[in-house]
Each structure stands twice: as structure tokens, then as C-alpha cells.
Amino acid sequence: MTAPILDANFALNVALLLMLVVLAFAVVRTRSLLAAILLLTVFSLVSATWLMVMDAADVAFTEAVVGAGISTIVALGAILLTRGEVVRVNWKRQVVPGLLAVIVGGMLIYAVSALPDFGDPASPANSHVGRSYLETTKHDIGAPNVVTAVLGSYRGFDTLGETVVIFAACIGVALMLGFGPRATLAPAVDTLGDHHVVLRVVAKLLIPLIILFALYVQFHGDLGAGGGFQAGVIMAVAIILHALVFGLRDTMAAVPARVARTVAVLGVVLYAGVGIVCIANGGGFLDYDYLFTPQVEAMIPPGLLGDPDHVHHWGQHFGILFIELGVLMTVAATMVTIFYGFAGRTVDAIEARART
Amino acid sequence: MNWLAAHFNYVVVVILMMAGLFIVFSTGNLIKRMIGLALFQTSTGLFYISLGKVSGATSAITLDATSVDGKALAAQLDPAYVERFGVDGVVYSNPLPHVLILTAIVVGVATLAVGLAIAVRVREAYGTVEADEIEALSRVTAEQAEPAP
Amino acid sequence: MVDALNWIGGGFIVAGALLSILGAAGVLRFPDVYTRIHAASLTDTGGATLMLFGMGLLGPFGLITLKLFLVWGFVMLTSPAASNALANAAYSSGHRPRIGNFQIVGDDEPEPSSKGAP
Predict the structure, then answer these.
(1) Spatial CB neighbours of C16, under 8 Å, sequence gap ≥ 6
(2) Are A291 and A318 a contacting pair, CB within 8 Å?
(3) With an 8 Å Cβ cutoff, is A207 touching chain C?
(4) Which among C74, C80, C88 has the least Cβ separation from residue A195?
(5) Are B42 and A37 within 8 A, CB to CB?
(6) Does the model's pTM come out above 0.95?
(7) Do A196 and C88 touch (CB under 8 A)?
(8) Which of C78, C88, C92 sits opposite A202 (nearest CB)?
(9) Domain of residue A281, residue span
(10) Which of A22, A53, A195, C90 is least surrounded by CB atoms within 10 angstroms?
């Protein structure tokens, strides 16, 4: 086993992990739920930085957007609806979990000694399958971003499963919290005068740019860090920003809840549909080499993309493009539906309280 | 000391996991439990990424070894190291854990939303999100539904 | 020449980091919500600007410099909006600025709150 190279990278790693430990203990100790949620947001941002130090560009991207964006909004919506601010602390209740944590933690740390050294390039995890993906991606798929190639092509079936899980969460939240506010929304009335003009102007400037950036991230997924998951969350964040600044009514007029649910379904259908087209053309499920029939492939000028004797790269590229589009649609629509569920319930709760 | 340098990441991951587990077990507040679960999920993600890191490597986005970036990266490392562990002249970090954790993060937030939606509905049904009170209330309701003979 | 640029860029990044630390110290030590917002905005304008400028000097001139400039533009656009939103929220929830001269209170004296005072 090779010892880790103790350089600036490793020092950064240690510093950021210590920050994460401090944040975790703060989340454990705090009694205010709002503080716990905001500390979790900071935890996500610091772990996104740590992920960049660990060379995980795609994952850092996703963690930053998801942890600092959607997760916070959903959790804040939840505490708004449950009006729980202070956690009850019962000292007797904490003794057994504390002992359990210490004992299990001790056993796990003892087990950790058997793991390969940190940063070992010859460890079993880094030697066999992972390394083979690095070696064969250029030949099989031709995309520079190996993570997208593995996610979209080599492990495309797993990603389909994940997309369906996200869609199931969309249905779950929609069934539990409703499809939007049941009360008709009054137009947003600014009782404080025009105090929000700065936010409105900046939001008007930024929302189209955020959507454009989401599309950029989507289509550059196989060239650099990016892909369907990050793009979907960024697009949903743009729509949620619109709702926060301009009011839920205008946003639901622009992106109705029904449209969001339909788009989520269409995303999964598109993803599975690509797989079925591959079967229809003679290959396996999600085998993108068979996405295009030989007649279509004959029309492509050789050498236009990548190796001249690897015309099937077109199939791989378009296959990954279509499934990433499916992922974008499902993820964005799911996040928007979840937000509508929480926000709609908030509006109903306020209306109910105003009526009583 | 050498052991600590080689296993520091994993020890921290265990500490974070135990912090999340402690929150889930020690508190009765449903929302705080979901927060603890989210902490637990993030720490397992950290574990996988730590496994996939290769010292001195770069992100798994294929670089040309003859380009400016590729040469700068190779200049920082021992040539024998690059020769043995590099692919086409550049050392990359293992991309497989990144793939697994990328989808896990988005699925994690989706399941967090489902859990919080359940907590909201529980609050509407029982008027509280503390597990002890919910248990007491549901026992009262059960006793009222079936009067003792 | 490249070496000199590296040193100057590194100097700017360190200066930006120091300003960020100052901003954080201000958030912890200032007595009032509004002064704390002011200190926090120092992290974005002073800290991020200097660090991005330093990174621009360090990297090769080209697409990266343009991207860093765009990042700086977005930070400059959103950070004042965030400070405005914070101050707005503080005002509409009842906090009023503490006016008059006062000292940073010690640990044994109770801190007067800024809530509701005219």
C-alpha cells in the first residue's frame, strides 16, 4: 500500500473535514430547528468544497446545488408548516443513544484500519473496474467526461432506476401534500410598499440567466462537469426563485402543477423509450450502439466526431443526450412539484388561520 | 501518526455517521430526525468519495497529456508514478464512486422531501411532531375506539 | 514575469482570505443586526473580489479569465440583493437600528436587544 502524499491537497482535506465535524456537533447540540437547517446548509456547502478537493467535480456541483438550494427550501417549508422551533430535550433519553454511538463508532473505527490507505492508487477499488472505465471510455463512447459516460452508458440502467425513484418521490409528495393550494390565490399584495424592488429587479435579471446556465450544464455534461441531475435541480431552483420573489400565483400560472407532473412522467418515458428503441433496432436495453439503424449511421460522415472507425460514437452521444434530457425533465419537475406541495399547504394554512 | 494520516478521512466519516445516528435515536422531534438522517446520508457519500481518491490525481475528465494542463499535472508527480498508475500519461481519480454518489445525493433530497411531507401530515393529524406526544395521543385514541371490557 | 504574476496573484488571494476572516469576525462581534449585515457583505465584496482577481492573475489568460470575470459579475449582482433582503426582513420583523453611542458589552453585562427600540 502506498502512503498518501502529504501535500497542500491533503492539508485542505484535513481542514475541511475538521470543519465538517464541528458543524455536525453544532447540529447535534442546537435546539432550534431553524438553526439546525441552516447549519445543514453550511455543512452541504463545505462538503461541496471538500468534494472539489477530492477531484469529484460533478459531485461537488450536485451537492452545492442540492444541499444549498432544494434541501434548505424543503426543510424550511416543513418547519413553517409544523411550526416547530424548539426541540424538547430529555436528558434520560440521550444516555443510551450516546453509548450506542460511542460503541458502534469505536467498532467502526477499529474496522476502518483494514481499509486501504487514503489515496492509494493500487487499492482494489481503484485498480479494477474503475480503472477499466478510464481506459475504455475513449474507445467505447468518445466522451471526455468519464463520470457522465459511466452514468449514462455503462451504468445507464442504474440511472434509470434512480430516475424512477425520484419520480416516485414526486408522486409521494404530491399525494401527501396536494397538487398545489386548494384555496384560490389572491394576487401578491405588497403591504410594505415597494420594499422588494431590489429583489424583483435582480430576480428578473437572473432567472433567465439561471435557466440558460441550466441548459448549458445539461448539454456540456459529456465535455466537462455537468449532466442531467445538476441541470434539473438548477432549473427547478430558477422556478422556485421566481415563486419566492413574485408570489406563488404568478409562478403557478407560468408553470402549472399539472404541467410539472406531466413533464416528470415524460422524462421517465423518454429514458425508458430510448432503451426500447435500442431493443427494436436489434441490441440490448439501453445499448446505444444500436440506437440508430444502419441506414442512419451510413448517412453520418466518418471522422466527424472522434475516431473515424468508431461511427457508433454517434449512437453513444445521442443516447446519452436523450437520457440526460429525460433525467433533466424528471428531476426539475419533481423538485417543482415538491415545492408546490409545501408552498400550497402553507397558503392553505394561512388561509385557514385567517378564516378562524 | 502514519495510520492517522492514512485513515483520517474514514475516522471523520465514522464520527459524522455517529453524530447523525445519535440525532436520530436521541430526539423525538420528527423534523430533527430527518435532519440527522440527511447528515448520515451525506457522510456515507463522503466515505465513498474518500475511497475513490488517488493521491496527486485530477478529476476524471479526460485530458490530453501533451496539453498545458496535462504537462503541469505531470510535472508535480514522480514520472514512475504517472507511468504505473496513469491512463495515457495522466493520473485520474476513480470515477465510479462519483457516479454512485451523484445520483445518491439527488435521491437523498427527494426522500428527505417525502419524509418531511409525512412529518407535515403527522402534525396536521396529531397537532405535534414530538414522537412521545404522538404515541400518547394515539394510545388515547385507540383506547377510545375500543373501550376496555 | 510569470513568477511575479504568481506571487502577486497569491498575495491578492491571501488578502482576500484575510478580509473574509475580518468579515466573519465582524459578524460575531458587532452588536446589531444591521451592522452584522454590513460586516457579512464585506466577505462578498472585499474577500471574493480580491480572491477572484488573484485567481485571474494566476491562471492562463483566456477562457478561464472570462469565466472568473463572469463569476465576479454575478457575485456583485447578487450579494447586495441578499444584504437588502436580509435588512428588509430584519426591519419587517421589528428590529430597529440601535442609535447612539455604546460600547461592545462585556460578558457580565446583559446585551441590550435592538428589537423594537425607536
Answers:
(1) C46, C47, C48, C49, C50, C51, C52, C53, C54
(2) yes
(3) no
(4) C88
(5) no
(6) no
(7) yes
(8) C78
(9) 135-356
(10) A22
Q: What is the mean pLDDT of chain C?
A: 85
| CA-based nearest residue to C65, from C80, C81, C53, C77 | C53
pLDDT at A4: 65
pLDDT of C118: 42
Residues A153 and A38 grouped into a single domain: no
Q: What is the pLDDT of residue C109?
A: 45
Task: Mark yes or no for CB contact A198/C80 under 8 Å.
Answer: yes
Q: Does A206 touch chain C (CB under 8 A)?
A: yes
Residue where a domain terminates, one of A117, A146, A161: A117
Do B18 and A101 make contact, defined as CB atoms within 8 angstroms?
A: yes
Of B7, B36, B96, the CB nearest to A133: B96
Looking at the domain assignment, is residue A141 inside a domain? yes
Number of folded domains that form chain C: 1
Which range marks the domain in which residue C22 is found? Answer: 2-92
Question: What distance in Å separates residue A198's CA from the closest CA in chain C?
Answer: 6
Interface confidence, given as ipTM, is 0.92
A72-112 tens-digit pLDDT: 999 998 988 887 667 677 788 888 999 999 999 999 999 99
Helices and strands (H and E) in chain C: how many: 4, 0
Q: How far does Cα A158 stand from its chain's mean position?
A: 15
Q: Nearest CA of chain A to the CA of C75: how many Å?
A: 11
Q: How confident is the model over C45-57, as a mean pLDDT?
A: 93
Find how far residue A262's CA is from the centre of its chain: 20
- Put simply, the answer to whether A56 touches B93 (Cβ < 8 Å) is yes
In a shared domain, residues A195 and A226: yes
pLDDT band at A63 (very low <50, low <70, confident <90, very high): very high
CB pairs under 8 A between A and C: 19
Q: Are residues A297 and A347 in the same domain?
A: yes
CB contact under 8 A, A206 and C77: yes
Q: Which span out of A91-100, A140-149, A208-217 was modeled with the highest average pLDDT?
A: A208-217
Q: Which residue has the higher pLDDT, A131 or A328?
A: A328
- Helix, strand and coil content of chain B, in percent to the nearest 5, comes to 75, 5, 20
Looking up cell 485530458 gives B63
Which CATH code is given to the segment(s) B2-53+94-145?
1.10.287.3510
